[in-house]
Design a protein that fits this description.
about 300 residues, alpha/beta, Conserved hypothetical protein from pyrococcus furiosus pfu- 392566-001, ParB domain, five-stranded mixed beta sheet, two-stranded antiparallel sheet, 15 helices, about 50% helix, globular
Length: about 300
Amino acid sequence: MSGERPAKGLGMGLEALLGEAGRQTPAPGASEGSPASRGGVREIEIARIRPNPGQPRIQFGEEALDELAESIRQRGVLQPILLRPDGEDYMIIAGERRWRAAQRARLHAIPAIVREIDDSTTSELALIENTQREDLNPLEEAEGYKQLIHRHGHTQDEVGRIVHKSRSHVANLLRLLDLPEFVRQSLLKGDISMGHARAVATAPDPEELTREIVAKGLSVRQAESRARREKVRPGPGADIGRASARNAAKAVDTDLEVLERQLGDLLGLKVQVVHKGHGGAVTLHYSSLDQLDMICQRLSGEPI
């Protein structure tokens, strides 16, 4: 990573950049003292803005875009998008969805903040914006992590710190990219969940198990059970009755493990569930104050 990168901004997410709007780069062709260079937020012509080719988010729901466009027609764009100079024009760092909706609302200009940011930091901020707002599907998030690792030289630990997620969450998502195409498409379409995808990844034939999940509506726990059964079939002479008894004794523990993984996938953190009698405890493990802040925001319902 370059020594000139705004480390504080990356650690705190987009809020740090938006909060420093007073220190802006002048628009191409504008002088430091011109009105276009003062005040942080300014109106930029939509036609002079292009999307970031490294944007991790690929799918933009048509219905959701139409709803946002209608809101923009009535109330305008309430939060500026973040841009970087790109020749005589601009590239989007964060806010492509608002930019697309503003076009549908037939706006000629959109409020924006312009910052001088390098390619690597642009990729990081685009990923941070989407993951913090939970806008990405698991495969898009995984592709974003892959870019940070292979194109920008980060380790899985560093990626976890950048996006405020655990290293295990990053590693689990990256494994999704090795799944067969049918499984990935089923995940993209919502036919299976992230928990299902993790289960089929351990099966001898992930595609076959995915088809069974879709056809029979299997739960995550059922999918994991089938994956384990296919992976370790009892050999000749095995004591099947004793093995069944052991499996039954572990049923409750298996349920808790599935729940831990589902919560971990949702939060991107390590989660531990301990159940005793009629009650128990849920423990969320965080490795930085940024992760703790993310937990507090999500539990309180505050926007991230």
